[in-house]
Amino acid sequence: MGRRWKTRGWLPLLLVLCCLQAAESAEKPVIRIKLIEIRGNERIEESTIRFYIQTKVGDPFSVSRIREDIIRIYQLGFFTDVKVDVESFEGGLKLTYIVKEKPLIRKVTITGNKEISLEDITEKLGTKPRSILNQNIIRDDVEKIKALYQERGYYFADVQTRISEEEGNQVEVIFQIEEGKKVRIKRIAFRGNQTLDDRLLKSVMETKEGGLLSFLTGSGIYKKEVLRDDLRRIEALYHDRGFLQVEVGEPQVEVNKEEREIFITIPIKEGEQFRIGKLTLEGDEIYTAEELRRAMRSREGEVFNRSQLGRDVLRLAELYAQKGYAFADVIPVTQNDLEHRLVNIALRIDRGPRVYVGEIRIRGNEVTRDKVIRREIRFNEGELFNSAKLQRSRQRLFNTRFFEDVKIETKKRPQENIVDLDVQVKERPTGTFTAGAAFSSQDGFVVVANISE
Protein backbone atom coordinates (compact mmCIF):
# COMPACT_ATOMS: atom_id res chain seq x y z
CA MET A 1 0.00 0.00 0.00
CA GLY A 2 1.61 3.23 -1.13
CA ARG A 3 0.87 6.68 0.22
CA ARG A 4 1.97 9.97 -1.36
CA TRP A 5 1.63 13.50 -0.14
CA LYS A 6 2.01 16.03 -2.95
CA THR A 7 1.71 19.84 -2.53
CA ARG A 8 1.56 22.53 -5.15
CA GLY A 9 2.21 26.28 -4.72
CA TRP A 10 3.98 28.08 -1.92
CA LEU A 11 1.20 28.25 0.67
CA PRO A 12 -0.02 24.63 1.14
CA LEU A 13 3.30 23.26 2.41
CA LEU A 14 3.41 25.89 5.14
CA LEU A 15 -0.22 25.23 6.02
CA VAL A 16 0.24 21.44 6.20
CA LEU A 17 3.29 21.80 8.43
CA CYS A 18 1.39 24.13 10.71
CA CYS A 19 -1.45 21.67 10.85
CA LEU A 20 0.84 18.75 11.66
CA GLN A 21 2.90 20.51 14.30
CA ALA A 22 0.34 22.69 16.04
CA ALA A 23 -3.09 21.28 15.24
CA GLU A 24 -4.26 21.83 18.77
CA SER A 25 -3.17 25.47 18.98
CA ALA A 26 -6.16 27.83 18.89
CA GLU A 27 -3.94 30.65 17.61
CA LYS A 28 -3.22 28.92 14.28
CA PRO A 29 -5.75 29.20 11.43
CA VAL A 30 -7.85 26.10 10.72
CA ILE A 31 -7.18 24.76 7.23
CA ARG A 32 -10.28 23.14 5.73
CA ILE A 33 -10.94 20.73 2.89
CA LYS A 34 -12.49 22.50 -0.09
CA LEU A 35 -12.69 19.64 -2.63
CA ILE A 36 -12.29 15.82 -2.73
CA GLU A 37 -11.64 13.99 -6.01
CA ILE A 38 -11.22 10.30 -6.93
CA ARG A 39 -8.91 9.13 -9.72
CA GLY A 40 -7.77 5.79 -11.14
CA ASN A 41 -10.97 3.80 -10.70
CA GLU A 42 -12.34 2.12 -13.82
CA ARG A 43 -14.57 -0.74 -12.62
CA ILE A 44 -15.27 0.32 -9.05
CA GLU A 45 -17.92 3.00 -8.75
CA GLU A 46 -16.77 6.34 -7.35
CA SER A 47 -19.75 6.32 -4.97
CA THR A 48 -18.46 3.07 -3.44
CA ILE A 49 -15.06 4.63 -2.71
CA ARG A 50 -16.58 7.84 -1.35
CA PHE A 51 -18.75 5.82 1.04
CA TYR A 52 -15.59 4.65 2.85
CA ILE A 53 -13.96 8.10 2.97
CA GLN A 54 -14.76 9.70 6.33
CA THR A 55 -13.11 13.00 5.45
CA LYS A 56 -15.73 15.43 4.10
CA VAL A 57 -15.65 18.80 2.34
CA GLY A 58 -15.57 21.48 5.03
CA ASP A 59 -13.72 19.33 7.56
CA PRO A 60 -10.42 20.54 9.07
CA PHE A 61 -7.38 18.90 7.51
CA SER A 62 -6.37 15.79 9.55
CA VAL A 63 -3.44 13.51 8.78
CA SER A 64 -4.77 10.71 11.00
CA ARG A 65 -8.22 10.77 9.41
CA ILE A 66 -6.77 10.61 5.88
CA ARG A 67 -4.56 7.74 6.99
CA GLU A 68 -7.69 5.90 8.19
CA ASP A 69 -9.41 6.66 4.86
CA ILE A 70 -6.52 5.05 2.98
CA ILE A 71 -6.70 1.94 5.15
CA ARG A 72 -10.47 1.61 4.71
CA ILE A 73 -10.24 1.92 0.93
CA TYR A 74 -7.37 -0.56 0.77
CA GLN A 75 -9.23 -3.09 2.92
CA LEU A 76 -12.04 -3.24 0.35
CA GLY A 77 -9.77 -5.68 -1.48
CA PHE A 78 -10.22 -4.03 -4.87
CA PHE A 79 -6.95 -2.08 -5.06
CA THR A 80 -3.23 -2.75 -5.10
CA ASP A 81 -2.33 0.82 -4.18
CA VAL A 82 -4.00 3.89 -2.64
CA LYS A 83 -2.40 7.36 -2.60
CA VAL A 84 -3.49 10.87 -1.68
CA ASP A 85 -2.41 14.14 -3.34
CA VAL A 86 -2.78 17.38 -1.30
CA GLU A 87 -2.75 20.78 -3.00
CA SER A 88 -3.96 24.30 -2.30
CA PHE A 89 -7.41 25.14 -3.58
CA GLU A 90 -9.56 28.26 -3.09
CA GLY A 91 -8.07 29.21 0.26
CA GLY A 92 -8.03 25.64 1.52
CA LEU A 93 -6.94 22.21 0.34
CA LYS A 94 -7.98 19.78 -2.36
CA LEU A 95 -7.58 16.04 -1.66
CA THR A 96 -7.20 13.62 -4.57
CA TYR A 97 -7.50 9.92 -3.72
CA ILE A 98 -5.62 7.98 -6.39
CA VAL A 99 -6.33 4.24 -6.57
CA LYS A 100 -4.84 1.45 -8.63
CA GLU A 101 -7.32 -1.36 -9.21
CA LYS A 102 -6.47 -5.02 -8.95
CA PRO A 103 -6.64 -6.93 -12.25
CA LEU A 104 -9.86 -8.60 -13.36
CA ILE A 105 -9.72 -12.36 -13.93
CA ARG A 106 -10.61 -12.98 -17.56
CA LYS A 107 -10.06 -16.73 -17.57
CA VAL A 108 -9.27 -19.60 -15.17
CA THR A 109 -7.32 -22.49 -16.69
CA ILE A 110 -6.65 -25.90 -15.12
CA THR A 111 -4.00 -28.19 -16.62
CA GLY A 112 -2.52 -31.58 -15.77
CA ASN A 113 -5.68 -33.19 -14.37
CA LYS A 114 -6.35 -36.71 -15.63
CA GLU A 115 -7.78 -38.61 -12.65
CA ILE A 116 -10.23 -35.91 -11.53
CA SER A 117 -12.60 -34.18 -13.93
CA LEU A 118 -12.41 -30.49 -14.72
CA GLU A 119 -15.97 -30.05 -13.38
CA ASP A 120 -15.11 -31.57 -9.99
CA ILE A 121 -12.10 -29.28 -9.59
CA THR A 122 -13.85 -26.13 -10.81
CA GLU A 123 -16.69 -26.71 -8.37
CA LYS A 124 -14.24 -26.37 -5.46
CA LEU A 125 -12.60 -23.14 -6.64
CA GLY A 126 -13.30 -19.70 -5.26
CA THR A 127 -11.35 -18.13 -8.13
CA LYS A 128 -13.88 -17.36 -10.85
CA PRO A 129 -13.81 -15.52 -14.21
CA ARG A 130 -14.97 -11.88 -14.03
CA SER A 131 -13.91 -11.63 -10.38
CA ILE A 132 -11.17 -9.48 -8.84
CA LEU A 133 -7.77 -11.13 -8.52
CA ASN A 134 -7.23 -12.18 -4.90
CA GLN A 135 -4.04 -14.00 -3.94
CA ASN A 136 -5.52 -15.27 -0.68
CA ILE A 137 -8.37 -16.98 -2.52
CA ILE A 138 -5.89 -18.49 -4.99
CA ARG A 139 -3.81 -19.91 -2.13
CA ASP A 140 -6.96 -21.40 -0.58
CA ASP A 141 -7.86 -22.92 -3.96
CA VAL A 142 -4.46 -24.60 -4.17
CA GLU A 143 -5.11 -26.30 -0.82
CA LYS A 144 -8.63 -27.28 -1.90
CA ILE A 145 -7.29 -28.99 -5.03
CA LYS A 146 -4.63 -30.83 -3.01
CA ALA A 147 -7.25 -31.97 -0.50
CA LEU A 148 -9.48 -33.19 -3.33
CA TYR A 149 -6.63 -35.30 -4.71
CA GLN A 150 -5.72 -36.65 -1.28
CA GLU A 151 -9.32 -37.80 -0.84
CA ARG A 152 -8.82 -39.91 -3.96
CA GLY A 153 -5.51 -41.33 -2.73
CA TYR A 154 -3.11 -39.00 -4.58
CA TYR A 155 -1.21 -37.99 -1.47
CA PHE A 156 1.70 -36.37 -3.33
CA ALA A 157 -0.33 -34.27 -5.76
CA ASP A 158 1.21 -30.84 -6.27
CA VAL A 159 -0.41 -27.63 -7.54
CA GLN A 160 1.41 -24.58 -8.87
CA THR A 161 -0.18 -21.32 -10.00
CA ARG A 162 0.78 -18.84 -12.69
CA ILE A 163 -0.68 -15.40 -13.45
CA SER A 164 -0.62 -14.35 -17.10
CA GLU A 165 -1.15 -10.61 -17.65
CA GLU A 166 -3.37 -9.48 -20.52
CA GLU A 167 -4.61 -6.21 -21.98
CA GLY A 168 -7.04 -3.98 -20.14
CA ASN A 169 -5.71 -4.79 -16.65
CA GLN A 170 -6.94 -8.39 -16.97
CA VAL A 171 -5.21 -11.68 -16.16
CA GLU A 172 -5.49 -15.39 -16.74
CA VAL A 173 -5.07 -17.58 -13.64
CA ILE A 174 -3.52 -20.97 -14.41
CA PHE A 175 -3.54 -23.93 -11.98
CA GLN A 176 -0.89 -26.45 -13.02
CA ILE A 177 -1.49 -29.87 -11.42
CA GLU A 178 1.02 -32.67 -11.06
CA GLU A 179 -1.05 -35.62 -9.88
CA GLY A 180 1.65 -38.13 -8.97
CA LYS A 181 0.85 -41.73 -8.11
CA LYS A 182 -1.92 -43.03 -5.89
CA VAL A 183 -0.82 -43.90 -2.34
CA ARG A 184 -2.69 -46.30 -0.04
CA ILE A 185 -2.52 -47.21 3.62
CA LYS A 186 -0.45 -50.36 4.00
CA ARG A 187 -0.79 -50.89 7.74
CA ILE A 188 -2.62 -49.48 10.77
CA ALA A 189 -1.01 -50.45 14.07
CA PHE A 190 -1.60 -49.61 17.73
CA ARG A 191 0.91 -49.24 20.54
CA GLY A 192 0.03 -49.67 24.21
CA ASN A 193 -3.39 -51.38 23.90
CA GLN A 194 -3.58 -54.42 26.18
CA THR A 195 -7.28 -54.94 26.88
CA LEU A 196 -8.79 -54.19 23.46
CA ASP A 197 -7.12 -55.90 20.52
CA ASP A 198 -6.19 -54.34 17.18
CA ARG A 199 -9.05 -56.00 15.33
CA LEU A 200 -11.70 -54.47 17.61
CA LEU A 201 -10.11 -51.03 17.45
CA LYS A 202 -9.94 -51.15 13.65
CA SER A 203 -13.61 -52.14 13.48
CA VAL A 204 -14.76 -48.72 14.73
CA MET A 205 -12.47 -46.78 12.40
CA GLU A 206 -13.53 -45.34 9.08
CA THR A 207 -9.90 -45.29 7.97
CA LYS A 208 -9.07 -48.72 6.58
CA GLU A 209 -6.03 -50.52 5.25
CA GLY A 210 -5.80 -51.01 1.50
CA GLY A 211 -6.44 -54.44 0.02
CA LEU A 212 -6.96 -56.32 -3.20
CA LEU A 213 -10.43 -54.84 -3.65
CA SER A 214 -9.48 -51.28 -2.73
CA PHE A 215 -10.22 -50.09 -6.25
CA LEU A 216 -13.84 -51.15 -5.67
CA THR A 217 -14.33 -50.37 -1.97
CA GLY A 218 -12.25 -47.17 -1.85
CA SER A 219 -10.43 -48.41 1.26
CA GLY A 220 -6.85 -47.48 2.04
CA ILE A 221 -7.27 -43.73 1.43
CA TYR A 222 -5.62 -41.49 4.02
CA LYS A 223 -7.71 -38.49 5.08
CA LYS A 224 -6.39 -36.44 7.96
CA GLU A 225 -9.81 -35.27 9.20
CA VAL A 226 -11.29 -38.77 9.01
CA LEU A 227 -8.38 -40.16 11.02
CA ARG A 228 -8.96 -37.39 13.59
CA ASP A 229 -12.57 -38.56 13.93
CA ASP A 230 -11.34 -42.15 14.25
CA LEU A 231 -9.34 -41.19 17.32
CA ARG A 232 -12.55 -39.98 18.95
CA ARG A 233 -14.30 -43.22 17.99
CA ILE A 234 -11.52 -45.24 19.62
CA GLU A 235 -11.77 -43.10 22.75
CA ALA A 236 -15.55 -43.63 22.85
CA LEU A 237 -15.04 -47.40 22.50
CA TYR A 238 -12.80 -47.40 25.58
CA HIS A 239 -15.30 -45.26 27.52
CA ASP A 240 -17.99 -47.84 26.78
CA ARG A 241 -15.75 -50.45 28.42
CA GLY A 242 -15.06 -48.46 31.54
CA PHE A 243 -11.67 -46.98 30.61
CA LEU A 244 -12.49 -43.37 31.46
CA GLN A 245 -8.88 -42.21 31.67
CA VAL A 246 -7.80 -43.56 28.29
CA GLU A 247 -5.45 -41.37 26.28
CA VAL A 248 -5.40 -41.79 22.51
CA GLY A 249 -2.26 -40.04 21.31
CA GLU A 250 -1.33 -38.26 18.11
CA PRO A 251 -1.03 -40.80 15.27
CA GLN A 252 2.36 -41.27 13.65
CA VAL A 253 2.01 -41.23 9.87
CA GLU A 254 4.96 -42.53 7.87
CA VAL A 255 4.97 -42.25 4.09
CA ASN A 256 7.07 -44.38 1.77
CA LYS A 257 7.10 -42.36 -1.42
CA GLU A 258 8.95 -44.94 -3.46
CA GLU A 259 6.61 -47.81 -2.56
CA ARG A 260 3.59 -45.49 -2.44
CA GLU A 261 2.59 -46.78 1.00
CA ILE A 262 1.45 -45.18 4.25
CA PHE A 263 2.00 -46.65 7.72
CA ILE A 264 -0.09 -45.36 10.64
CA THR A 265 0.70 -46.03 14.30
CA ILE A 266 -1.70 -44.90 17.02
CA PRO A 267 -0.35 -44.77 20.61
CA ILE A 268 -2.82 -45.65 23.40
CA LYS A 269 -2.60 -45.42 27.17
CA GLU A 270 -5.56 -47.38 28.49
CA GLY A 271 -5.51 -46.58 32.21
CA GLU A 272 -7.71 -48.36 34.78
CA GLN A 273 -11.17 -49.82 34.19
CA PHE A 274 -14.06 -48.28 36.15
CA ARG A 275 -17.30 -49.85 37.37
CA ILE A 276 -20.59 -48.30 38.43
CA GLY A 277 -20.66 -47.45 42.14
CA LYS A 278 -23.77 -45.82 43.59
CA LEU A 279 -26.68 -45.26 41.20
CA THR A 280 -29.15 -42.83 42.74
CA LEU A 281 -32.35 -41.28 41.45
CA GLU A 282 -35.49 -39.86 43.00
CA GLY A 283 -39.02 -40.90 42.11
CA ASP A 284 -42.15 -38.75 42.14
CA GLU A 285 -45.91 -39.12 41.85
CA ILE A 286 -45.52 -40.12 38.18
CA TYR A 287 -42.95 -42.93 38.60
CA THR A 288 -41.37 -44.45 41.68
CA ALA A 289 -37.60 -44.73 41.94
CA GLU A 290 -37.92 -48.50 41.48
CA GLU A 291 -39.93 -48.10 38.26
CA LEU A 292 -37.32 -45.74 36.88
CA ARG A 293 -34.51 -48.07 37.91
CA ARG A 294 -36.17 -51.02 36.11
CA ALA A 295 -36.31 -49.01 32.91
CA MET A 296 -32.52 -48.62 32.96
CA ARG A 297 -29.91 -51.07 31.69
CA SER A 298 -27.08 -49.66 33.81
CA ARG A 299 -26.62 -51.54 37.09
CA GLU A 300 -24.47 -51.01 40.16
CA GLY A 301 -21.29 -53.10 40.07
CA GLU A 302 -21.23 -53.48 36.29
CA VAL A 303 -18.53 -52.03 34.05
CA PHE A 304 -19.34 -48.40 33.32
CA ASN A 305 -20.64 -47.84 29.78
CA ARG A 306 -21.03 -44.23 28.69
CA SER A 307 -23.23 -45.01 25.67
CA GLN A 308 -25.44 -47.24 27.80
CA LEU A 309 -25.93 -44.39 30.26
CA GLY A 310 -26.90 -42.11 27.37
CA ARG A 311 -29.51 -44.62 26.21
CA ASP A 312 -30.85 -44.89 29.77
CA VAL A 313 -31.31 -41.14 29.89
CA LEU A 314 -33.37 -41.31 26.69
CA ARG A 315 -35.47 -44.17 28.09
CA LEU A 316 -36.35 -42.20 31.22
CA ALA A 317 -37.21 -39.11 29.18
CA GLU A 318 -39.42 -41.30 26.98
CA LEU A 319 -41.31 -42.60 30.03
CA TYR A 320 -42.24 -39.07 31.02
CA ALA A 321 -43.08 -38.13 27.42
CA GLN A 322 -45.66 -40.93 27.44
CA LYS A 323 -47.39 -39.12 30.32
CA GLY A 324 -47.55 -35.77 28.56
CA TYR A 325 -44.20 -34.33 29.73
CA ALA A 326 -42.83 -33.89 26.22
CA PHE A 327 -39.83 -31.85 27.30
CA ALA A 328 -38.74 -33.72 30.42
CA ASP A 329 -35.04 -33.25 31.10
CA VAL A 330 -32.95 -36.06 32.61
CA ILE A 331 -29.51 -34.90 33.75
CA PRO A 332 -26.85 -37.48 34.68
CA VAL A 333 -24.22 -36.29 37.15
CA THR A 334 -21.18 -38.55 37.43
CA GLN A 335 -18.45 -38.54 40.08
CA ASN A 336 -15.31 -40.62 39.68
CA ASP A 337 -13.93 -42.43 42.72
CA LEU A 338 -10.32 -42.84 41.59
CA GLU A 339 -9.21 -44.80 44.65
CA HIS A 340 -11.82 -47.55 44.20
CA ARG A 341 -12.14 -47.15 40.40
CA LEU A 342 -15.88 -46.47 40.64
CA VAL A 343 -18.26 -44.06 38.92
CA ASN A 344 -21.09 -42.82 41.12
CA ILE A 345 -24.12 -41.74 39.08
CA ALA A 346 -26.92 -39.42 40.23
CA LEU A 347 -29.84 -38.82 37.86
CA ARG A 348 -31.78 -35.59 38.26
CA ILE A 349 -35.15 -35.37 36.54
CA ASP A 350 -36.88 -32.12 35.67
CA ARG A 351 -40.14 -33.21 34.11
CA GLY A 352 -41.36 -29.71 33.33
CA PRO A 353 -45.04 -28.91 32.59
CA ARG A 354 -47.49 -31.19 30.83
CA VAL A 355 -47.89 -30.46 27.14
CA TYR A 356 -51.01 -30.63 24.97
CA VAL A 357 -51.43 -31.14 21.24
CA GLY A 358 -52.27 -27.98 19.29
CA GLU A 359 -52.68 -27.88 15.53
CA ILE A 360 -52.01 -30.95 13.37
CA ARG A 361 -50.69 -29.83 9.99
CA ILE A 362 -50.35 -32.24 7.05
CA ARG A 363 -47.98 -31.58 4.15
CA GLY A 364 -46.68 -33.42 1.10
CA ASN A 365 -49.87 -35.25 0.15
CA GLU A 366 -51.03 -34.60 -3.39
CA VAL A 367 -53.17 -37.68 -4.06
CA THR A 368 -54.06 -38.89 -0.55
CA ARG A 369 -56.72 -36.81 1.15
CA ASP A 370 -56.12 -35.22 4.53
CA LYS A 371 -58.89 -37.20 6.18
CA VAL A 372 -57.25 -40.49 5.14
CA ILE A 373 -54.08 -39.41 6.94
CA ARG A 374 -55.85 -37.97 9.99
CA ARG A 375 -57.73 -41.18 10.73
CA GLU A 376 -54.37 -42.97 11.19
CA ILE A 377 -53.09 -40.35 13.64
CA ARG A 378 -53.70 -41.41 17.25
CA PHE A 379 -54.05 -37.81 18.46
CA ASN A 380 -56.89 -35.35 18.63
CA GLU A 381 -56.14 -31.66 18.77
CA GLY A 382 -56.30 -30.46 22.36
CA GLU A 383 -55.51 -33.78 24.08
CA LEU A 384 -52.51 -34.59 26.26
CA PHE A 385 -49.30 -35.29 24.34
CA ASN A 386 -48.09 -38.91 24.35
CA SER A 387 -44.85 -39.99 22.66
CA ALA A 388 -46.07 -43.60 22.35
CA LYS A 389 -49.07 -42.40 20.36
CA LEU A 390 -46.72 -40.36 18.20
CA GLN A 391 -44.74 -43.48 17.29
CA ARG A 392 -47.91 -45.50 16.64
CA SER A 393 -49.24 -42.75 14.38
CA ARG A 394 -46.11 -42.84 12.28
CA GLN A 395 -46.17 -46.64 12.06
CA ARG A 396 -49.85 -46.71 11.06
CA LEU A 397 -49.20 -44.24 8.26
CA PHE A 398 -46.38 -46.47 7.00
CA ASN A 399 -48.65 -49.50 7.21
CA THR A 400 -51.07 -47.94 4.72
CA ARG A 401 -48.33 -48.44 2.08
CA PHE A 402 -49.32 -45.11 0.58
CA PHE A 403 -46.10 -43.38 1.62
CA GLU A 404 -42.38 -43.81 1.08
CA ASP A 405 -41.50 -41.64 4.06
CA VAL A 406 -43.34 -40.18 7.04
CA LYS A 407 -41.94 -37.53 9.38
CA ILE A 408 -43.81 -36.11 12.37
CA GLU A 409 -42.14 -33.10 13.99
CA THR A 410 -43.22 -31.43 17.22
CA LYS A 411 -42.99 -27.64 17.39
CA LYS A 412 -43.50 -26.00 20.78
CA ARG A 413 -45.39 -22.74 20.83
CA PRO A 414 -43.47 -19.93 22.55
CA GLN A 415 -44.56 -19.40 26.17
CA GLU A 416 -47.34 -22.00 25.84
CA ASN A 417 -47.57 -25.64 26.96
CA ILE A 418 -48.74 -26.62 23.50
CA VAL A 419 -46.98 -28.44 20.66
CA ASP A 420 -48.11 -28.40 17.05
CA LEU A 421 -47.55 -31.52 14.95
CA ASP A 422 -46.17 -31.19 11.43
CA VAL A 423 -46.91 -34.39 9.51
CA GLN A 424 -44.74 -34.53 6.37
CA VAL A 425 -45.43 -37.42 3.98
CA LYS A 426 -43.87 -38.52 0.71
CA GLU A 427 -46.34 -40.49 -1.39
CA ARG A 428 -45.53 -43.67 -3.28
CA PRO A 429 -46.34 -43.83 -6.98
CA THR A 430 -49.84 -45.29 -6.98
CA GLY A 431 -50.51 -45.44 -10.72
CA THR A 432 -49.60 -48.33 -13.04
CA PHE A 433 -49.15 -48.48 -16.79
CA THR A 434 -49.14 -51.70 -18.80
CA ALA A 435 -48.82 -52.19 -22.52
CA GLY A 436 -48.68 -55.11 -24.93
CA ALA A 437 -48.80 -55.98 -28.58
CA ALA A 438 -50.10 -58.95 -30.58
CA PHE A 439 -50.66 -60.04 -34.16
CA SER A 440 -53.40 -62.26 -35.53
CA SER A 441 -54.60 -63.18 -39.03
CA GLN A 442 -58.05 -61.81 -38.18
CA ASP A 443 -57.24 -58.53 -36.46
CA GLY A 444 -53.74 -57.90 -37.71
CA PHE A 445 -51.32 -55.98 -35.46
CA VAL A 446 -52.96 -54.95 -32.15
CA VAL A 447 -51.54 -52.71 -29.40
CA VAL A 448 -53.10 -52.83 -25.93
CA ALA A 449 -52.41 -50.25 -23.17
CA ASN A 450 -53.88 -49.84 -19.71
CA ILE A 451 -53.50 -47.05 -17.11
CA SER A 452 -54.86 -47.50 -13.61
CA GLU A 453 -54.74 -45.46 -10.41
Q: How is this structure best summarized?
A:
This protein has 453 residues and is of the alpha/beta class. It has 12 helices and 18 strands.
List the uncertain runs.
Answer: 1-17, 19-26
Oligomerization state of this entry?
single chain
H/I helix tally: 12
* Binned strand content: 25-35%
Query: Care to count the β-strands?
Result: 18
Helicity level, as a percent range?
25-40%
Gap from first CA to last CA: 72 Å
Radius of gyration: 36 Å
Series of secondary-structure elements, N-terminal to C-terminal: HEHHEEEHHEEEHHHEEEEHHEEEHHEEEE
- Averaging pLDDT over every residue, what do you get? 88
Please describe the biggest sheet, giving its number of strands, its sense, and whether it closes into a barrel: 4 strands, mixed
The structure class reads alpha/beta
Overall outline:
extended
What is the topology?
Blueprint: H1 11-21, E1 33-39, H2 46-51, H3 63-74, E2 79-89, E3 92-101, E4 104-111, H4 118-124, H5 135-151, E5 158-166, E6 170-178, E7 184-191, H6 198-203, H7 214-217, H8 224-239, E8 247-248, E9 252-256, E10 261-269, E11 275-281, H9 289-295, H10 306-321, E12 329-337, E13 342-350, E14 356-363, H11 370-374, H12 387-399, E15 403-412, E16 418-427, E17 432-440, E18 444-452
Parallel strand pairs: 1-3, 4-6, 7-10, 11-13, 14-16
Antiparallel strand pairs: 2-3, 5-6, 8-10, 9-10, 12-13, 15-16, 17-18
Characteristic key phrases:
disordered N terminus, four-stranded mixed β-sheet, 26% helix, 12 helices, 18 strands, 453 residues, single chain, alpha/beta
Report on the architecture of this protein:
26% of the residues lie in helices and 33% in strands. The protein has 453 residues and is α/β, with parallel strands linked by helices. Strands 7, 8, 9 and 10 form a four-stranded mixed β-sheet that branches. A hairpin with a 5-residue loop joins strand 15 and strand 16. The longest helix is centred in the first third of the chain and has 17 residues.
